[in-house]
Design a protein that fits this description.
The chain folds into three domains: 64 residues, Orthogonal Bundle (Arc Repressor Mutant, subunit A); 239 residues, Type I PLP-dependent aspartate aminotransferase-like (Major domain) (Aspartate Aminotransferase, domain 2); 103 residues, Aspartate Aminotransferase, domain 1 (Alpha-Beta Complex), CATH 3.90.1150. Helices cover 42% and strands 13% of the residues. The protein has 17 helices and 13 strands. The strands form three sheets. The chain has an eight-stranded mixed sheet with strand order 3-10-9-8-7-4-5-6, with helices on both faces. β1 and β2 form a beta hairpin.
Length: 460
């Protein structure tokens, strides 16, 4: 399509300014002079100058005409701001995980579909037909589907966490919950304490928020208390993000004494604690939970159904004090309006029908069997395991000292094997010794076992 005469003139003037032939502060011809110069009507010349102003190339000064302004051209889409580029760099492993080209997925963060949506649960992953017609077309309460929140309140009570349905906010999974918490609590420049190693997608969210991340060493029984005390005592931190149970990536869970001390330190230094518990439904209800000890005073509790039902069934929740929930509801409405009432009804129906409890019983048994098999295989490979994980999907395997975890991951990828290098899980991207996160469901893949033996022998 041929460019209009007006557009041609605008493009020509923009080029003159870009090339420096017209400089900031130069006065442009008057509307009459410009119209005569370009052979167009005066109203067309007005349109030319209006477009230049809109593009940021010119400014109007009443009574004096139009002048070239200091040009602030918009960045090209691919030119990301530094903090955005850092955040994207932090989640490269997530991008690889979502790529389905890998034939072996020992580093995957998700369970195999045969454990969840592809299992016996498949036929139940839809709302009851009689109730399906009752789904309203409106957005519903921003807190989320009320009957599901009521069910969750009962589930929390089984974990010794007392929360009214009004203290529960439904979200698009745990990641969305963490996102709105970060938006509410964190300002640019705030110091935020995180597990090290820990949940790397959280690091990316904090980079986007321009927070200053400080890692807290993670021991097999929870956060290193001396490290936590020392860094909390600086007085600069305002929140600590952690995963107490079936920790990602180490798989270990916090001990009761450690949990008590974490809360004492948080209280002493006036810290909020955000505890992400995505494996809540497969860990014992009596496990030491910070939210149970604290009763949602300064602890913000996050959980999800995505790790137990389906990675594509995005449904999670936040439980917190009424004041925190009120603020998070506002952030949720401003960012996405509301979560999916349809998905929330699917989850509610699974719980109310008893199918979810039956599914969890089978899933726990699968996890138990896979843990035993994984420990035996890794022992044969002479891969030391950190701590004694018994729940969740992850083990933290130590690579030989001479092996680079990143080079190992690159070499595995060349053979269509997806692995998760340990350094990705550290906010500083460094570890004292090379590790990798291992998914217990995939570690028995013969292609991975063969690759590992060949690579380690070749690089020794």
């Amino acid at each position: 399509m041929q460019m209009s005469r007006t557009s041609q003139i605008v493009a020509g003037l923009v080029k003159l300014i870009d090339d420096g032939l017209l400089k900031p502060g130069d006065r442009l011809p008057s509307i009459r002079a410009g119209a005569e110069q370009y052979g167009i009507a005066k109203n067309s010349m007005v349109d030319v100058y209006d477009r230049l102003v809109a593009l940021g190339y010119a400014q109007a000064q009443r009574g004096s005409g139009f002048f070239v302004t200091t040009v602030h051209r918009p960045r090209a889409i691919e030119e990301r701001r530094p903090h955005v580029a850092e955040a994207v760099d932090l989640v490269w492993l997530l991008r690889e995980q979502l790529d389905q080209r890998y034939v072996a997925r020992v580093g995957d963060g998700r369970p195999p579909p045969s454990w969840t949506e592809g299992s016996e649960l498949r036929k139940y992953l839809r709302p009851d037909r009689q109730r399906e017609a009752q789904i309203e077309s409106g957005y519903g309460s921003p807190l989320g589907f009320a009957p599901l929140r009521e069910r969750i309140a009962v589930m929390l009570a089984e974990r010794s966490i007392k929360a009214a349905p009004s203290q529960i906010l439904l979200t698009h999974g745990a990641n969305h919950a963490l996102d709105i918490i970060v938006r509410h609590l964190i300002e640019p420049g705030d110091v935020v304490l995180v597990d090290d190693p820990g949940y790397y997608p959280l690091y990316a969210k904090l980079k986007l928020a321009k927070a200053d991340m400080v890692g807290i060493r993670r021991n097999a029984d929870g956060p290193d208390l001396d490290d936590f005390e020392s860094k909390a005592a600086s007085g600069r931190a305002k929140v600590f993000f952690t995963q107490s149970l079936a920790h990602n990536p180490t798989g270990n869970s916090i001990s009761l004494p450690n949990a008590h001390r974490v809360l004492q330190i948080a209280m002493r230094h006036d810290l909020h604690v955000v505890d992400d518990d995505p494996f809540a439904d497969v860990t014992p209800a009596a496990s030491p939970r910070l939210a149970a000890l604290d009763q949602l005073d300064r602890v913000i509790y996050v959980s999800s159904f995505s790790k137990t039902l389906s990675a594509s069934l995005r449904c999670g929740y936040v439980a917190a004090s009424p004041r925190i929930i009120d603020a998070l509801v506002d952030v949720k409405m401003l960012s996405i309006v509301n979560s999916s009432g349809y998905v929330e009804r699917v989850v509610h129906d699974l719980i109310a029908s008893g199918q979810y409890r039956h599914h969890l019983k089978r899933l726990r048994e699968r996890i138990k069997v896979a843990h035993g098999r994984a420990f035996e295989l890794l022992k044969q490979l002479d891969i030391p395991i950190f701590g004694s994980p018994s729940d969740g999907y992850y083990l933290w395997g130590q690579l030989p000292d001479h092996v680079s975890d990143l080079e190992f991951a690159r070499a595995a990828a060349e053979e269509n094997i997806f692995t998760a290098p340990g350094s990705v899980f550290s906010p500083s991207r460094t570890l004292a010794k090379p590790h990798m996160r291992i998914n217990i469901a995939y570690v028995n893949d013969a292609r991975f076992l063969d690759f590992y033996r060949r690579y380690v022998n070749r690089s020794s």
